[in-house]
Amino acid sequence: MLLLRDTTTEEALLGTAREHTGLVRDSHAGTVEPAALGRKFTATLQAALESGLYERDTLAGLADKALAAAPESVIADLVPQLPFLPKQSLSVGGHKAFTRGLSEFLHYYESSGTTGNPVAAPKALDDLVVNTINIGEQWGRILERSDRALILINAPFAPAAYQFEKVLEYLQVMSLRPWVDNITGDYTRVLRLTRELGVNVFVGPPSRLLEMVQFAYRNDEPVPAFDKLLLMAEQTGPGFVRHLERLTGATAYVAAYGSSETGTTAVTCERGNLHLQTQSYVLELTDDSGTRFVDGSPDRGELVVTTLDMPGRPLLRYRTGDLVEIPGTPCPCGVATPLLRTLGRSQDLIVLEGNGIRQNDFEAALWPERHSGPTVLNYMLVIQGKAVVCLATTDVPVDEAWARATADRVQGLFPGYELALRPVEKLPPLASLGQYLGWKLSRVLDLNDARNWDRLPDPIRGVVETTLADLASTPEK
Questions:
Q1: What is the DSSP letter of 245?
Q2: Is the N end or the C end of the chain the one with fewer CB atoms within 10 Å?
Q3: What distance in Å separates the CA atoms of residue 390 and residue 398, rounded to the nearest whole number?
Q4: Facing residues of 256 across strands?
Q5: pTM for the whole thing?
Q6: Mean pLDDT rounded to a whole number for the chain
Q7: Checking DSSP bridges between strand 299-307 and strand 281-287, what pairing results, if any?
Q8: Are the CB atoms for 207 and 181 separated by under 8 Å?
Q9: Half-sphere exposure of 433 (CA within 13 A, CB side)
Q10: What is the DSSP string of 247-294?
């Protein structure tokens, strides 16, 4: 998987890989000893003493307690005594988060910055190997050696594309990782390679897949015949998954959940359920009622992450800002780790005069189970005042009557607001707009914040301006 000139490092890395693979398989079987995780937590505290993110005196006292504590109970006893690490602190901390020199990392990456400034997220040999095995042992239940995968992730500063390439290497699945220019949006070569190579697996964000499908429709190219969609990097609910499966004929999986900062905290199984990677993380939920460990029982709240396998950049009680649900039911696949359902980021809830509208609810109305006629491929909601504009790409050209009928179908989700649907040739590149849109931020742009106007490129900005003016001039019903 990794060829290293230094044979001593290579042998140590191989030992790490073998040990962690055994731990992952024990975790899947539900036989991991709490003491094994306790020892990893104690080592993480020791490593964190070299990080500039934490108050050293407080952390040193807890690290000493951990060394003296019984490893099977150290997590339950000491984690609640640690302070939370807010996202802003990590963002501002920058390289202070590192416990080793920059040259000791293998690759330098940053987070996408969807909710603030990008965060340094370099990959070291140890956490790269662990994350690869965590994902690979789950994806190996879905993929076969004969599969051929297209990785389509236009995010050069983030680790996702490289990480998933390493996972496919781990599984010995052939892959290609092309680049599509965001300006031209020309998928001709990607579509040709997909056909000629018999690519049957898509790996990437839904928006990139939908751009490719739309390009095929509009240029009389065959829509790619994928068998499996391994989706990530965007909030993808049941309605959206159903829509993608209907478009491609493939089986879609929300394949991985995590971030550049934390690594991959949950990975899909063959039944399409995300399993928490409890061998590599201590996981908690927090809300107004308090904070508690994720123990597999039904619960929901903001996910709090403590890493166990990132000694070069350890995170202690990191508040992700992600709202998640633990359904508390066993998975029929047989993997024993708890299941997770993503509910989006805390700001993904569209609050309109006290009424909360979730992305999943909107998509269920936009893409009902029974559907005929032109299809919305992808969408973006733009909100200003009492107006909501739904920008949509479609599989075929549509007329005003279709746009009105589609808007009427979803209008009920926006009581007291005027909603208009406007077909556009192309949306802003949702999966690659950095801190503006993309991973976890849903497809919502709030123009009540005037700065967001600059995030609408021409000619889309003109469409939005005209639509908002039309809605403002329409007499109230």
A1: H
A2: C
A3: 14
A4: 267
A5: 0.88
A6: 88
A7: antiparallel
A8: no
A9: 21
A10: HH-SEEEE-EEEETTTEEEEEE-TTS-EEE-TTTEEEEEEETTEEEE-
Structure tokens at 272: 């399409």
Q: What is the chain's alpha carbon radius of gyration, rounded to the nearest angstrom?
A: 23
76: CB partners within 8 A, 6+ apart:
293
Distance CA 341, CA 358 (A): 14
Calpha distance 199→168 (Å, rounded): 14
Q: What confidence tens digit (pLDDT) does each residue in 306-344 have? A: 999 999 999 999 999 888 999 999 999 999 999 999 876
What tokens does 184 get? 């031209």
CA–CA gap between residue 286 and residue 296 (Å, rounded): 15
Q: How far apart are CA 168 and CA 148, in angstroms?
A: 9
Contact (Cβ atoms closer than 8 angstroms) between residue 185 and residue 210: no
Q: Are 462 and 424 in contact (CB under 8 A)?
A: no
Peptide bond into 459 cis (omega under 30): yes
- Each residue's pLDDT tens digit, 96-144: 999 999 999 999 998 766 556 788 899 999 999 999 999 999 999 999 9
- The H or E element that residue 204 is part of is strand 201-204
Mean pLDDT of 173-194: 88
Asked whether the CA dihedral 270, 148, 434, 430 is positive or negative, the reply is negative
pLDDT exceeds 80 at position 444: no
- Contact predicate 316/82, CB 8 Å: yes
Which helix (H) or strand (E) segment is 23 a member of?
A: helix 7-29
Contact 42, 59 (CB under 8 A): no
- Integer Cα distance of 36 and 90 in angstroms: 28
What pLDDT digit, counting tens, does each position of 31-45 carry?
999 999 999 999 999
| Helix, strand, coil in percent for the chain, rounding step 5 | 35, 20, 40
Length of the chain: 477
Return d(Cα 279, Cα 39) in angstroms, integer. Answer: 12
